[in-house]
Amino acid sequence: MSILEMKVPSPGESITEVEIATWLVKDGDYVEKDQAIAEVDSDKATLELPAEVSGVITLKAEEGDTVAVGQVVCLIDMSAAKPAGEAATKAEAPKEEAKPAAVEAPKATPAPAPAPVPTSYASNTPSPAAKKILDEKGIAPAAVTGTGVGGRITKEDAVQAKGVPAMGSSNASGSRTVKTTKLSMLRRKIASRLVSVKNETAMLTTFNEVDMSEIFRLRKLYKEEFAAKHGVGLGFMSFFTKAVVRALQLYPDVNASLDGDFKVNYDFCDISVAVSGPKGLMVPVLRNAENMSFRNVEAGIKDLATRVRDGRITVDEMTGGTFTITNGGTFGSMLSTPIINPPQSAILGMHNIIQRPVAVNGQVEIRPMMYLALSYDHRIIDGKESVGFLVAIKEAIDNPVEFLLGGDERRGLEL
User: Distance between alpha carbon 90 and the CA centroid of its chain, in Å?
Assistant: First the structure.
């Protein structure tokens, strides 16, 4: 018998333990080499654990167990033969026996209708014993028909009553199930980081609004040609990413972080883009966005988002960003105060686009408007820099041809 001990590989630097989120196979199953056998959670991502060899598997850890990197989590018997497949055969359905002719049942004589109960001032008035029972059941007397003298509700009526609970009373027959589920290691880490950001930074948020009319015009005019030439769509994120890069270069303190008593400035723009996936919110990083064209940005974001949603994103692809963009508008958010992604010093929040009346050259016009929010760490970024940074983004979005496309929209989009 040849047994392989499968140990937990290291998902990335500084990660010492993981959690078995889900076993994708059962104890005793035959697995093929490279087949995904489990999903494991680290404090940064959810990763698949592939089988190193083919054979019959024996599980050595339960779902929800926290295991150290290098710990044995299963055994694979490489000498076990692959079970032969059995051809499925359909059992012939038994023929239905002839049913005997139905014998006509004698017609039932309808029961005489009960005599109506005479009503009076006592109608639907419960007796003291009946009132106590109805109160305990939470049933209103008006929902019960009394059979006592003059329509009075008797104790027996109250016992048999199954009416609608009275307003303000509890419905004891309703579902009151409570389900407790342990948070994944990733979700626990996110919660811890968010709380630490609130406690350890001087976080403020400043707001502005942008007119999306020009971007709407450019996308309507060039989206088909752009997609045909570059193989990706022309979305909003490329415009905002390019606007952020420009603003970071104008206000370098926003593209910085604190390391103890030292400020660390970066001469590159690694933009973290928040993406919602099946395991929660992930922030993969678009490296050196300052060197990217519109096509590169769109292709890069599409690839990262696909990897997040397919569960193929790696820890390395989610670390090292210098600034984050999050778009709550995709879920309908009109305004929010996004939380900084540490150790970064600022985050831009995009929101939904609403047709609103605005004053343009002294005239009221309906324009597609979006609110922007910049949350920043006041320990390193002053109000002047934060407001100037957001204004720089606004002028680039309001006038993308001048500030993002170099005055030539076709050349700027590489068409």
Answer: 43
Beta-sheet pairing, 72-77 with 3-7: antiparallel
Least confident of 61-65, 99-103, 163-167: 99-103
Residue tagged active-site, from 27, 34, 65, 378: 378
Catalytic residue among 27, 382, 398, 408: 382
The pTM of the full predicted model, rounded to 2 decimals, is 0.67
Q: Decide if pLDDT at 344 tops 70.
A: yes
**Distance, CA of 395 to CA of 402 (rounded, Å):** 9
Between helix 383-398 and helix 236-250 the angle, nearest 10°, is 140
CATH topology of domain 3-77: OB fold (Dihydrolipoamide Acetyltransferase, E2P) (2.40.50)
Element (H, E) at 282: strand 280-282
> Are the CB atoms for 206 and 374 separated by under 8 Å?
yes
Query: Residue 245: which residues within 8 A CB-CB, separation 6 or more?
Result: 269, 271, 289, 290
- With 0-12 / 13-18 / 19 or more C-beta atoms within 10 angstroms meaning exposed / middle / buried, residue 406 is exposed
The stretch 403-408 carries a mean pLDDT of 92
Tokens of 302: 């599409």
Active site residue 230: no
| Nearest-10 Cα torsion for 362, 363, 364, 370 | -60
- Hey, what CATH class is 128-160 in? few secondary structures
Q: Which 3 state secondary structure label does DSSP give 300? A: helix
More confident residue, 279 or 379: 379
β-pairing verdict for 275-277 and 280-282: antiparallel
User: Which CATH fold would you assign to the domain 202-412?
Assistant: Chloramphenicol Acetyltransferase (3.30.559)
Residue 395 in contact with residue 370, Cβ under 8 Å? no
Mean pLDDT, rounded, of the chain: 84
C-beta separation of 50 from 25 below 8 A: no
Domain parsing of the chain, residue ranges: 3-77, 128-160, 202-412
Count of CB atoms situated within 10 Å of the CB of 403: 18
DSSP 286: E
Q: 72-77 and 55-59: which strand pairing?
A: antiparallel
Question: What is the reported pLDDT for 158?
Answer: 82
Q: Which of 90-94, 254-258, 394-398 has the lowest mean pLDDT?
A: 90-94
Contact (Cβ atoms closer than 8 angstroms) between residue 373 and residue 348: yes
